[in-house]
Amino acid sequence: MPTGAELFVDTAARLGIDTIFTLVGDHLNEVLAVASARGFRIVDMRHESGVTHAADAWARIHRKPAISLVTGGPGHTNSLTGIATAHLAGSPLIAVSGSRPSTMADRQAFQDIDQVGMAKPVVKWAAEPPDAARIPFYLERAYAVAASGRQGAVHLTIPVDLFTAHAESAPSALGPEPLASPGNPADIAHAIDLLRAAERPVVIAGSGIWWAHAEEALRRFIERTSLPLYTITMARGAVSDDHPLAMGYADPALNYAVHSAFREADLFLVIGKRIDYRLAMGGTRLFPAHARFIQIDIHPEELGLNRKLDVAICADARAALKSLFAAAGPDSWPRRRWLDQLLSFRRAWQARLSEYAADTQAPIHPAAFFRELKAALPEDVLYSWDGGDFTHWGRASLPARHPGGWLRLGPLGTIGSSLPNAVALQLAHPERKVVAITGDGALGFYLAEMDTAVRHKLPIVLIVGNDAGWGLERELQSAATGTAATVACELQSARYDLVMRAFGGKGETIESLDRVAPAMARALASTVPYCVNVKIRGVRSPFTEWQIAGKKK
C-alpha cells in the first residue's frame, strides 16, 4: 500500500510534472526522498520565497502548472510573497506547504498556524486534504484550477503524517479540458469592420498571447492586416522588436514614442492585456477620449473594467486571432501612411535614448552602459529583469526578440525576484545565455540564490547596477522634497562580484565603459555563474520621470 508521499509524487508525474522547487524541512523529508527516487529534478534553494518565485517562473516559461514545496510555519509564511507574485501574474503555480501532523491541529503544536487561511486571499483556491488517500484528488484539482480560465496560483497544505501514512488512492479524475473559445462570430466581424475603417489603429498585445501559444497567430494577423503592434508583459518578443510592424514596448513609462502614438490613434485592439495601471487605467493621460477600443480577454471580468469598449470578445487569444485572421479576408490590407508616422515617433525616442547614452562621464551613465551591453550580447540572449531605475534604463534600451525570453516581475512588482527567476530560466534553457539584470538594492533580497546557481551549475550572467542606494526611491524622494536629502535610501557600494566568488562563481567590478565589452566576453564564456558589478551613476530613468509627472497631475 503506497504512502501519501508516493501518491503525491506519482500524481505529479501523471500530471506531467518532473521538477520540484524546494527548501528542505522536517515536514518534507518523506516526499522529497520519494521524488528523488522517482527521478524528479529537485531544485533546492536558499529562501522559500525564492522557491516560489523560481517555480512561478518555471510555470510561466513552460506555460503549465509547476510545483513549489516548502515546509510549514515560517517556511510557509516566507513563501507567500512568491505565491502572491505568481497569482497576480496569472501564473499557474501549485504552492505546497507541509505542516504539523493533522492530529495536532488546534492543540498548540509546533509551527501550527492557519496556512490555508493565510494563502486564500492570494490564490484561486486553497485547501488541506483530510487524509492521505485524497492527496491525488486534491493535487489533481489544484492543477485543474491553476490551469483553467485566467490562470493563477493555488495552495495545498499537506500535514506531515499524511505524507507518511499508507493508503489506497481515493477515486479521482480530471475533467476534459475546455475548448478554447474563438469568440462570438458577430463580435469578430464587428471588430474587423472597425479595424478596416480606422485611420490610425494600434494593436497592444499582452501576456494572454504567451499563455495561449498565440505568437504565430499574432504575427500572421498583423502581417495580413498591416496593423502596428506594441507588446507588453509576457508578449514582449512574441513578435520580435525587429519586425517591421513591431513598434516596441507598449509601456508609456519606458517607450515615450507611445505618448504621441497612442494620443493620435483612433482605435485600439487590446489582446490578452488588462487595461490596468500599466496602461494608465485606460484614461486620457494616455488614450484619447474619443478613441474606440476592442478588447480580447479570456477572463470576462477584465472586459471593459477601466475603459468603455466598442467590442468585447471573451476568448482565448490564439483562437480569437485565428478567427480575426479568417474574417480579415484572403488578401493583405493596404499599408497605411500611419505606419510611417509611428516609425518616426519610434526613431525620435531612440534618438533621445542615444543622446543619454552618449554621456561618457564617470560614474557610468546607465544608458551608456546598456548601449555597450547591447553590442556585446548575442542576439539569442534571454533576459530576467528586476525593478529599479538601472533596469528600467535597460528595458527601455534593449530589444525583445524571442518569445518567453523577457521575464519580468509581474504586477506585484516584487523586486529581487530576477535572480530566482533566472535560475528557472537557465534550467529551462541550458543551451542559451541567460542574463539577469538587477540593482544593488534589489539583489539583497535573494543574494544567497547565487549559491543555488553555483550548486546547480547554472552559468547565469548576473549584472548588478551599483549606485550604492535605492536609486528609484532616492529620485522619488528628491523630486518630492526638491532637495538631495533622502531617508533610508543609501547603501554601501559593496563588491557583489566578490560575494559571487565566495559562493564558487566568478565575477568582476567595472567602473568605465571601455571595460564593458571585455567583461561581458568573460562572463558569456564562463561555465559558472558570473557577476558583473557595474559602478553606475544614479540617474532618474524614463520610468521614474513618468511616475513623477503622474504625481504632479
Question: What's the short story on this structure?
Answer:
With 553 residues, the chain is α/β, with parallel strands linked by helices. The chain has helices at 4-14, 29-37, 48-62, 74-88, 115-119, 135-147, 160-164, 185-197, 207-211, 215-225, 257-264, 317-327, 338-357, 366-376, 389-397, 418-428, 440-443, 449-455, 471-481, 496-503, 516-525, 542-552; strands at 19-22, 41-44, 66-70, 93-99, 125-127, 154-159, 201-205, 229-231, 246-249, 267-271, 292-297, 311-314, 382-385, 406-407, 434-439, 461-466, 506-510, 530-535.
What does this entry look like structurally?
The chain is α/β, with parallel strands linked by helices. It folds into 3 domains: 4-164, Thiamin diphosphate (ThDP)-binding fold, Pyr/PP domains (Rossmann fold); 185-342, Rossmann fold (3-Layer(aba) Sandwich); 358-552, Thiamin diphosphate (ThDP)-binding fold, Pyr/PP domains (Rossmann fold, 3-Layer(aba) Sandwich), CATH 3.40.50.970. It contains 22 helices and 18 strands. The strands form 3 sheets. Strands 2-1-3-4-6-5 form a 6-stranded parallel beta sheet, sandwiched between helices. It has a 6-stranded parallel beta sheet with strand order 9-8-7-10-11-12, with helices on both faces. Strand 13, helix 15 and strand 14 (406-407) form a beta-alpha-beta unit.
